[in-house]
Amino acid sequence: MARSLRDYSTPVVANVPVGPAVNTGNGNFELRTGLLTMVWANQFYGLPSEDVIAHLQNFLELCETIIIKDVAPKSVKLRLFPFSLSGKAKQWFYQSEEAVNTWDKCSTAFLAIFFPMSKTNALKGNISNFQQTSHKSIPEAWERLQEYIRDCPHHGMEDWLVLQNFYEGLVPMSKGHINATAGGTFLSLTIVHATTLIEKMVANQSWGEGRKTQKGMHTVRRIYLPQK
Predict the structure, then answer these.
(1) Are the C-beta atoms of residues 67 and 117 closer than 8 Å to each other?
(2) Looking at the whole model, is its pTM more than 0.85?
(3) Phi-psi map region of 121: left, alpha, beta (phi>0 left; psi -120 to 50 alpha)
(4) Cα separation of 127 and 144, whole Å?
(5) What pLDDT band is residue 15 in, cutting at 50, 70 and 90?
(6) Cα(221)–Cα(146) distance, rounded to whole angstroms?
(7) Which tens digit of pLDDT belongs to each residue from 180-218?
(8) Burial class (CB in 10 A: 0-12, 13-18, 19+), 31
(9) How many CB atoms lie within 10 A of CB 138?
(10) In this structure, is the dihedral angle defined by the CA atoms of residues 101, 107, 112 and 116, taken in order, positive or negative?
(11) 212 — phi, psi (to 5°)?
(12) What separation, in Å, do the N-terminal and C-terminal C-alpha atoms of the chain show?
């Protein structure tokens, strides 16, 4: 039957983009409502303020709990992933069928689009140019640095450089405290001993540069490190 001019302007279902076909092998792959509800509870919209790494982490944690006989885990991830997206992010998924037809390609493309190099460079700058604010204790400063590292797990900096950046970013009083706690100079410690010292400071709830004696003096508590 010949199409009318109106027919050419009317959308048809065949033109609606859908995700790639997922190879589930010989398995009977059924997405149950309860599973979809858990995925929908943590959707990613592609907004600049959203945490791409946290979204993937939550999604992968959920997928680790799913075992479907005769179906590869990567097939499960690829089939579920579009349900974890909405808005701009979902539009990207449906417009990139060839780029997302395997889980490896999908996850790589997703990070490339929503975690661009410009964002990586900005977050790496937070680590390399770390500065302690004057009203924060050493443990609080360390926790903030760890948040920066969690935000950019691919920062590529070696542990010795991260520790140096942390020390150099401390205010003078904090440098004096951490050197005294180290029993000398913090930078003379090995990577293992330096990390252990800071982690013990964080674990020690009584530590804090705001902790003072009755005379208003800061107290420094010695932390004993394993023998070198």
Answers:
(1) no
(2) no
(3) alpha
(4) 10
(5) low
(6) 23
(7) 999 989 999 999 999 999 999 888 854 444 444 333 333
(8) middle
(9) 24
(10) positive
(11) -130, 155
(12) 87
Distance, CA of 218 to CA of 212 (rounded, Å): 5
What average pLDDT does the structure give for the chain?
82
Assess contact for 106 and 75: CB atoms under 8 A.
no
Q: How far is CA 72 from CA 105, 135, 160, in A?
A: 16, 51, 39
**Cβ-based neighbour number of residue 180 at 10 Å:** 13
The residue type found at 146 is: Q
User: 3-state secondary structure string, the chain?
Assistant: CCCCHHHHCCCCHHHCCCCCCCCCCCCCCCCCHHHHHHHHCCCECCCCCCCHHHHHHHHHHHHCCCCCCCCCHHHHHHHHHHHHECHHHHHHHHHCHHHHCCHHHHHHHHHHHHCCHHHHHHHHHHHHCCCCCCCCCHHHHHHHHHHHHHHCCCCCCCHHHHHHHHHHCCCHHHHHHHHHHCCCCHHHCCHHHHHHHHHHHHHCCCCCCCCECCCCCECCCCCCCCCC
Closest CA to 198 of 67, 169, 103: 169
